[in-house]
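Sequence design from tokenized structure. All designs in this work follow the same two-part layout: the structure record, then the generated sequence. An example of the structure record is given first.
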């Protein structure tokens, strides 16, 4: 079954009145300068239901969810609960939806994140040492929908920093589509992966909330679901380099072409 993109006008309205950005507080930990925020109520319940229905129409059992795992060595396998990732997922090219989601969350992103300059924790030391500046370009149009049921999980990992058309991803976008009847399934950040006693911080799934966090060296996991189902949308937030070695790049405007 082919999964269509959403309508071009989806989310063509302001965020709900209760939308609010909150920084994840890593103070006093080994990652206190790292970036992660939640945007609560970024989408309404109805908008979440519409997005979910685009991949799983009500009453339609013919949905191409594939049960997959990623092993600790990064290999993709099927039906192996010993792996690092164990849950069904769908990947789909959905540029209408990705553009709409980026438009919705952009007003809630700090200016120092919309444009990365001397942002060593996010980019690493080399872009800063070269005088490079990166500007938020787009949410990658290839989105992944994950469905966690009882016993499903994603073990501790760091997200891969991807490259697309000369642009690099520095942030992960994660949208929670539901929470009713759900037990477990928190996104857990590890402040020191080398210390099993180090503090962890949990973000519990809440329908319509978005989690945005840096990909570089920020260890996290999708905790096991005990009851119900957790649906999320996952994507890469890409940046375009607009200043290289202190010199502005002609034609670089931070938007996708």
């Amino acid at each position: 079954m082919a999964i269509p993109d959403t309508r071009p006008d989806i989310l063509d309205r302001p965020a709900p009145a209760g939308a609010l950005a909150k920084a994840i507080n890593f103070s006093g930990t080994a990652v206190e300068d790292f970036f992660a925020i939640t945007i609560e109520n970024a989408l309404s319940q109805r908008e979440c239901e519409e997005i979910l229905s685009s991949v799983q129409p009500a009453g339609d059992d013919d949905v191409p969810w594939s049960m997959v795992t990623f092993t600790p060595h990064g290999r993709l396998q099927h039906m192996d609960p010993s792996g690092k990732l164990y849950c069904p997922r769908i990947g789909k090219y959905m540029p209408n939806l990705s553009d709409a989601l980026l438009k919705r969350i952009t007003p809630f992103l700090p200016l120092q994140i919309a444009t990365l300059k001397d942002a060593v924790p996010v980019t690493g030391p080399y872009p800063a040492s070269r005088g490079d500046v990166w500007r938020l370009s787009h949410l990658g149009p290839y989105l992944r929908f994950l469905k966690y049921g009882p016993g499903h999980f994603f073990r501790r990992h760091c997200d891969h920093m991807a490259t697309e058309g000369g642009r690099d991803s520095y942030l992960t976008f994660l949208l929670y589509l539901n929470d009713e009847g759900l037990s477990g399934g928190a996104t857990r950040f590890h402040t020191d992966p080398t210390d099993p006693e180090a503090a962890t911080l949990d973000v519990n799934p809440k329908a319509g909330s978005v989690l945005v966090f840096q990909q570089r060296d920020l260890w996290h996991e999708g905790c096991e679901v005990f009851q119900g189902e957790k649906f999320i949308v996952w994507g890469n937030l890409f940046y375009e380099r607009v200043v290289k070695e202190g010199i502005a790049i002609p034609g670089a405007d931070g938007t996708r072409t």
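The helical segments are 45-55, 95-105, 111-114, 120-123, 125-130. We note this feature because it recurs in several other targets discussed in the main text.
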